[in-house]
């Protein structure tokens, strides 16, 4: 499974440099501090510098003049980061210092080298979900006043903490720590809204007018200081010998579908797609477009050839009633081929009372078709605009792991965050309503950066398998697209036409296994190894065990005496009898 790059890709996994600041340990990776720990408890997930343009694009950077001094109990790192993309050119002089008493100081001197518009420039601090959820927090405001808060369990729709000059919190093991911020006003958001597995404290409050015009030569200075308040004992971290993966019940396996794209489906494409789970075919109708009926009829014909139903996403324009009449007229003779209808937009202030009317009309003519409330965008949009009525049969939102960052380690970490979207949706949606995820993609859709070549590798297959695990509880899940650069297989004319991508190959295996149940597994170290458990009607189990480490790894399944040794960067299959690398 290995190639010249990490986990079947062409890209290398950046090395981690181990650092120690007295009783606190962390790692350094390409300008970022990651995984700040005391003993076995993670205190901070990451500290890094970000430049976001007026469209919230994260500007890539390169590092120059990097100087690392790493001693037994302290460290100092200095480097220059050059952020460049299109009109943005920005230079940041960064200093990261760890002292023997556990204090870590991060400072930034930034200078604009061009004129551009920005939404954010400065430090971001990520707080780990597992060790922070439910823990008390004390916020000191810039004026010196304080207030108390708590890291939320369910995903907070809006920022849980505002106007931060200092943030103190207690860890699960009883230690007290503090962050101090200088150079700007900071606030904290719940990044699980975008399926990032962290809370984020950042500068430039969202309430302020943006974008901000930056002129060449403009400068900023910021400083973030992490400091243990309690006396932390100086101990060595225990090296993990074996990772435990345990089982905690099952839920029904969801209906799986694929999204349509604009490329023509050939007979070979259709034949291949019969080999993967294909319970529905996602298609978006924009009722404001004059030729939507002709396009819909082509898609309807494709769905019949694919032996599947249609998951319709219906976008209404300004003439809602006229468009609704046209929609009902067109669907009447084709309704048996439709599995669900998601109606968007839902929270346009001008149409705030019209969703119920649309729902009532659709249910009158198509009572057997579930009609949903939701968004084609992130969970944040659904969470911030929760339904205030019962006129819906399901809620829906999309998921991808690369809203804020694009590196391998972040994508791996973010798989776990998907489960919180389900738990939070269940808290405000009646149990009689279902939850759909549509679509699951590998990157943000409908942007210049929508394609990621890693989608065609084993790494993306591992992400897909774990997404099945962590989205446990959805009744319907749409995966990627049928074919093309964002699909399961190449488009016609592609040089690799005779091949399919690993995501296709694993879905083919899943269809042959015919799962009916999805196991709720837990890994003691999911950043290293994790697992998808499937069970079929005959009671047979299939474990897809993923080793993200670049080293061999030992795991123990469900507290048994059986120890499996996994190859580096691999997906292994265990059926209770035989263990093999896929």
UniProtKB/TrEMBL annotation:
Domain named D-apionate lactonase N-terminal: residues: 6-227
Database matches in Pfam families: Apionate_lact_M, Apionate_lact_N
Name the UniProt record assigns to this protein: Uncharacterized protein
D-apionate lactonase TIM barrel domain location: 256-510
